């Protein structure tokens, strides 16, 4: 199952759907020329990055909800 979350991009305005299985790390940063904050996300897909408006706390909650909404299939892991 590939759960996605929808986040708001900063540089290229609009939404971006991100597969949560591809998130390597994320952290909140501040622009060097203003107090405005954003969240920087590193994706496993060839080191791609995204800058989004949502806070790390919001992203964590979205990931939690996305993983909880995966239907149980009865498949046993390795």
Shape category: elongated
Oligomer classification: single chain
The low-pLDDT segments are: none
Number of helices: 1
Biggest beta sheet attributes: 3 strands, antiparallel
In helices, the fraction of residues equals 10-25%
Distance between the termini: 16 Å
Structural class: alpha+beta
Beta fraction of the residues? 35-45%
Count of extended strands: 5
With strands numbered from the N-terminus, the spatial order across the biggest sheet is: 3-4-5
* Overall residue-averaged pLDDT value: 88
Order of helices and strands: EEEEEH
Q: How many distinct folded domains?
A: 1
What does it look like?
The chain has 78 residues and is of the alpha+beta class. The chain has one domain (4-68). It has one helix spanning 56-68, and strands spanning 4-9, 14-19, 23-30, 37-43, 49-52. Strands 3-4-5 form a three-stranded antiparallel β-sheet, with no helix packed on it. A two-stranded antiparallel sheet has the order 1-2.
Report a brief summary of the structure.
The chain has 78 residues and is α+β, with helices and mostly antiparallel strands.
Keywords, please?
alpha+beta, two-stranded antiparallel ribbon, 78 residues, three-stranded antiparallel sheet
Question: SSE layout and pairings?
Answer:
Layout: E1 4-9, E2 14-19, E3 23-30, E4 37-43, E5 49-52, H1 56-68
Antiparallel strand pairs: 1-2, 3-4, 4-5
């Amino acid at each position: 199952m590939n759960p996605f979350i929808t986040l708001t991009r900063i540089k290229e305005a609009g939404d971006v759907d991100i597969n949560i299985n591809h998130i390597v790390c994320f952290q909140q940063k501040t622009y060097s020329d203003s107090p405005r904050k954003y969240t920087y996300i590193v994706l496993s897909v060839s080191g791609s990055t995204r800058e989004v408006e949502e806070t790390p706390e919001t992203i964590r909650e979205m990931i939690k909800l996305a993983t909880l909404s995966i239907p149980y299939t009865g498949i046993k892991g390795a």
